[in-house]
Automatic annotation (TrEMBL):
The keyword tRNA processing does not apply. The modification N6-(pyridoxal phosphate)lysine is found at residue 285. One of its GO terms (molecular function) is aromatic-L-amino-acid decarboxylase activity. It comes from Luteipulveratus mongoliensis. Keywords: Decarboxylase, Lyase, Pyridoxal phosphate. This is Glutamate decarboxylase. Belongs to the group II decarboxylase family. The keyword ATP-binding does not apply. One of its GO terms (biological process) is carboxylic acid metabolic process. Its cofactor is pyridoxal 5'-phosphate. Pfam families: Pyridoxal_deC (PF00282).
Amino acid sequence: MHGFTDETKALGEDILRYAAERLALDPVPLDSSATKADLDAVAGGAITAKGRGGRPALQLFEEHLALACLSTDHPRYLSFIPCAPTREAAMFDLVVGASSIYAGSWLEGAGAVYAENQALRWIADLVGLPDEAGGSFVQGGTIGNLSALVTARAAAREHAAEGVRPYRIAATVGSHSSIATACRVMDAEQVPVPMNDRMQMTGANLRKVLEDNGPETFFAVVATAGSTNFGVIDDLDSIADVCEEFGIWFHVDGAYGGAGLAAPSVRDKYTGVERCDSFIVDPHKWLFAPFDCCALLYREPALARVAHTQHASYLDVLNDAPDWNPTDYSVGLTRRARGLPFWFSLVANGTDAYTTAIEQTLEITRFAEAEVGRRDYLEVVRDADLSVLVFRRLDWSTQDYHAWSDGLLERQEGFVVPTSHEGETLARFAIVNPRTTREDITAILDSMA
Ligand SMILES: *Cc1c(COP(=O)(O)O)cnc(C)c1O
């Protein structure tokens, strides 16, 4: 099965045709979920001892499995955080798959690592990090946050006074669930910082939490630059002041919102981000790269190497060289060159196109906010900092929200699941797809009348 025959060639053409057709669809079909029983009926027993052949396998995917997967790039997919890759990035993902590149080490993947580092540098410049900053592309924000926090703890314990082992993280309840997950994995404790009336962490609130609990027990402060549920950016500059004063690691989680750094209309909301010790942004969210791709950056990458480099005799040849090995900056060893599709699209389209596309989604969000404000049956819950909008349908129960959401998907008119805040069910749009139009927004809002 490792040979290349006429049959393999024909299959390759079929697969490329399928991929090309999917990429050319406009709009893509929204599609829907399915039950296991549904899928058993059409695809149960697909794997056999003798094999079915490539074409039947592709057909199975094309005719059944693909239809049971929602298209996260549909312009009316506004749930969670959608993923709307550029055509260039999505296409280049095929090339990465075809190229068998090991991107964990410079020795094996120099060209890919070099390119990934260029893309990381663009992000580091947006953040305002110094020339020495660096990191790698990891699977997602969850692994990015965990890796940064593992580094923060190692650095803090290195410098802690005799007998002191910092074990706490300060973050608001608006911080992402992956921070709590990191704490569980690390056996660390998350101490909640109360939010102000704008749902932000501020330096003043952080200072009180540190002083009340003993600043020496903390190894990191996690600020969020674009909370997932509301798009709130914490007051980064005043947080940086407090971190600096107490000598605590300042991590900024920009998994969703970090992309806004490329948008002049919101850039000033991030003041202070340049003072962070580590930073993440997911290009698979608002930077138009395919899954799965998180950019993880450190101000001082050497601290991450201490925390993450794996030592084994078969790896000595890599570790003994003075090379930049991406695997040294995160949890995990083997890695796909997952930053390459993003790099390719940046090179092909230029960074101005990114600014334009991000501004476009911000513009549609402002339009949505105004449309909600104009309708007497709707109410904005908190004005949008970025491209997430949370709003209330007056007089609706939780069931009403769910019935409306289910109906939208059944009619293939949109995928907009409800969220909740302080026990109340609410509607939420996450707009990261530049193909989402004003008409898409008004159609969905009309459906709530
Ligand atoms: C999405 C998100 C994460 C987690 O990222 P994954 O790529 O889903 O692992 C972390 N933090 C924030 C703020 C997010 O929006």
